[in-house]
Design goal:
Elements: H1 2-8, H2 10-28, E1 31-32, E2 42-43, E3 46-47, H3 48-57, H4 70-83, H5 92-105, H6 107-118, H7 128-141, H8 143-162, H9 169-182
Antiparallel strand pairs: 1-2, 2-3
Helix pairs in contact: 1-4, 2-5, 5-6, 5-8, 6-8, 7-8, 8-9
């Protein structure tokens, strides 16, 4: 984490990324050979397609996701799944929730879920309207209520994806446990 803090700066580390990445990497684990998920084989939550796009956009050589070192995964998660979608601009408990869901299902999906909870247009873009709606919701009802509503929306999404599919029954148990672990402790 020391190297990561040098890369991203203390402000980002203190604003929740350390906590977010710790929880998400624990949820994601390392190499996952289960090809049933949307992205296929992954390592630290990074799919081969994501790694290929990252390397290509930076002129780096291709590599197998199975061989990707953890520090590189942390850098990709920071840049493409935390900073790029704007989760670092949110209160850290909310940003961490969106980050975890974004790693699992894509940042746009995570943003659309919070937008549905907030009652704003679900366009998958974390812009000023969504950010203001988050601030207003927290002021009116509290951050814990928002997080629980968000996790309910996330659960409904996974229930829709896994209903009727025998292949996804085992995956569903893992998804349910992950969401349960993400719930705030009162």
């Amino acid at each position: 984490m020391f190297l990561l803090s040098l890369l991203i700066g203390e402000d980002t580390m203190s604003n929740g990324f350390t906590e977010a990445i710790g929880k998400t990497l624990k949820n994601e684990g390392g190499l996952n050979l289960n090809e049933l998920g949307r992205g296929g084989v992954s390592n630290f939550g990074i799919t081969q397609q994501t790694l290929d796009e990252y390397n290509s956009s930076r002129g780096l050589p291709a590599e197998a996701v199975a061989d990707m070192p953890k520090p590189k995964a942390q850098t990709i998660l920071l840049e493409d799944f935390y900073q790029k979608p704007g989760f670092n601009r949110l209160p850290h408990r909310i940003g961490n929730q969106l980050f975890d869901y974004g790693v699992q299902s894509g940042p746009g999906t995570a943003i659309m879920a919070i937008q549905r909870v907030l009652g704003v247009e679900a366009d998958g873009i974390l812009g000023p309207i969504t950010e203001k709606a988050i601030d207003n919701f927290i002021s009116d009802k509290g951050e814990t209520v928002l997080i629980n509503g968000y996790l309910d929306e996330r659960q409904e999404h996974f229930d829709r994806l896994t209903s009727g599919s025998q292949d996804f029954k085992n995956i569903k148990r893992g998804l349910d446990k992950r969401i349960l672990k993400m719930r705030p402790k009162e």
